[in-house]
Amino acid sequence: MNEIIRIAVTLFALGIGIGAGYLLRKQMAQAQANSVEAKAERILTEAKNKQQEFILEAKEKAVKIIEEAKREEKQAKQELYGEKQRLERRETMFDQKLLEFQGQQEKLQEKIDKVNQVKQDIEKLREQELLKLQNLAGLNQDEAKQELLRIVEEENKDELMVRIMKLEKDASEQMDDKARELVIGAIQRCASSHAAETTSSNVSLPSEEMKGRIIGKEGRNIKTIEKLTGCEIIIDDTPETIMVSGFSPIRRQIAKLALEKLMSDGRIQPARIEEYVEKAKQDLAVDIKKAGEEALYKMGITGIDPKLVSIVGRLKYRTSYGQNILNHSMETAYLSAMIAAELGLDQSKAKKCGFFHDIGKSVDQETQGSHPEIGKMILEKFNMDQDVVQAAFTHHNDKAFNVYASIVKAADAISGSRIGARKDTYEQFVARLEELEKAAGSFPGIEKVYAIQAGREVRVFVRPNEIDDYSAFQLAKDIAHKVEQELQYPGEIKITLIRETRVIEYAK
Fold this sequence. Notes:
By secondary structure, this protein is mainly alpha-helical. It has helices spanning 2-137, 141-155, 157-189, 209-215, 220-229, 249-265, 270-299, 306-313, 325-343, 347-355, 371-381, 386-394, 403-417, 426-440, 469-486, and strands at 200-204, 232-234, 241-245, 319-320, 323-324, 446-452, 457-462, 494-499.
């Protein structure tokens, strides 16, 4: 019983303690809440006060800005007003000047009208005087002018001729002296071999028995070789030698290489011949490219398309009047560079122009057209410099395109006209002389024409009763111009025109 009472008292005491704790906790929480609210209220009040201060400061700044803006606006209005006043004064002044200018223009126009009227009156008087003169003379204005010119020309014909000849002689002597110095200097400084090539090649045989094997049964081997190469195989009594004849050096070289390969192999029959001809063509293509590369290396010319290099190499197997064109092109390049150096021009460009001037001859036997036209087409295709293109195109023309073309023309003539550089066959020589005499004798008033000194000079005899001294002077120029235009020749040709009057009388 006592135990129950004690438990009950304990529980009661515990309940009173929990209640007292709860009340105490509640009071403490309430006090803390009251403290936070007071702090928040205080912060809020301070924020409102600061806000009021900021608003007042902002209003004061806004008032100051507005006042400053009004002041600037007033100042700008005053400046604009001043500019407006100045512009109005200037406009008034311009109006006054314009009125004055218009007045002067009107006065000037009146003077112009008066002058035009005077000119018209003078022109009418001049026409009236001309009509009077024409009526008196019986000639109109053009006829009178032509008659006056005819009389003046007739009276001063000899004097004009002498003056023209003197001027041309003085100018030509000076130019000839200077040109002679340049050409002689270039020739003396350039030395090259002059081995004229022929239209045949010799092939050495290991024995006489090889001739029969090359001919073959019923001549089938030699016929096959001639058919595939386009050359003629000449077998005569010359010991251990046969001759390959043809106008194309490339074809002759192919035939020669094929024969050498066949003799080395020993089996000479049509099938082998065809095989070795193809191999010879391949070997020749390699040799052509190598020749082009070597020539360009010697010239110091770089940056050339490989296809153009092969075209250059073909010149090794091309001749003109027996002169190898590749050697001729290199010699022309050297001479062009020397002449350009004397004239103070670009030597490398002159050398390039000289080297490529005959590039058209590499394919002119397979392509239609003259070699200058073909050369121009080839060089333009490979985007060469225009000076190089024009030098190739105009090196045979009377008038060169530029100074480099003129230099190449001179160098080409020097290279081709050197003693031993070129040669003609008898038939070609005779035909060239006949063409020269025919071209020179195609003008009226010519009695006889003689080509002398191997075609280096032409002597033309004219009829003195048809050609006077002045006409003879002009006729010689016309003949020289026609020869330049129609004929191809190395060097230069001297035109000597002779007008001779013989008077015979007998004393009895």
